[in-house]
Write a structure and sequence with these properties.
Elements (H helix, E strand, L loop, with lengths): L1 E5 L6 E5 L8 H15 L25 E5 L2 E5 L5 H16 L27 H13 L3
Antiparallel strand pairs: 1-2, 3-4
Length: 141
């Protein structure tokens, strides 16, 4: 999966893609991402990378974002890579819920947080899953 667009000034390409699951390591990720960008756009082989960054994405096992309340604390989390748009929407919904407004209800309210066997909070399995998805992407699956 890749996402890209021109920068607002039209002088750069903003390019991003799926992480490879080895933590937040921008120095490694920039080379991986550059290679990916060249596979998508071979004509950019000589392009210089000016900036690179990485970070964690909250992803739930059920692939669904969660919004709810626990012990008087309202929460919205697990946007599964779509946090920019969803955080604005859920922020408004949580505010409406705090104010006890009916329009604060969503179809995402109170989904249970499911887990998996052998998962203790550190995604040790992520590198293998990311390699599988990279393999599948290269074959068009």
């Amino acid at each position: 999966m890749a996402y890209y667009r021109p920068s607002p000034d039209g002088k750069r390409i903003l390019f991003g893609g799926r992480a490879f699951g080895r933590g937040d390591q921008p120095q490694l990720y920039s080379k991986y991402l550059q290679d990916f960008m060249i596979r998508v756009f071979p004509q950019l082989e000589e392009a210089k990378i000016d900036y690179a960054w990485s970070g964690y994405v909250a992803y739930t096992f059920d692939h669904v974002p969660h919004i709810g309340q626990m012990d008087d604390m309202h929460y919205a989390m697990g946007y599964c890579g779509s946090g920019v748009g969803r955080a604005n929407y859920f922020g408004r919904k949580i505010a409406q819920q705090v104010l006890n407004q009916a329009e604060g209800k969503t179809s995402f309210d109170q989904f249970p947080f499911n887990t998996r066997p052998l998962y203790t909070g550190k995604p040790w399995f992520l590198p293998a899953i990311m390699r599988w998805h990279d393999f599948a992407d290269r074959r068009g699956w």
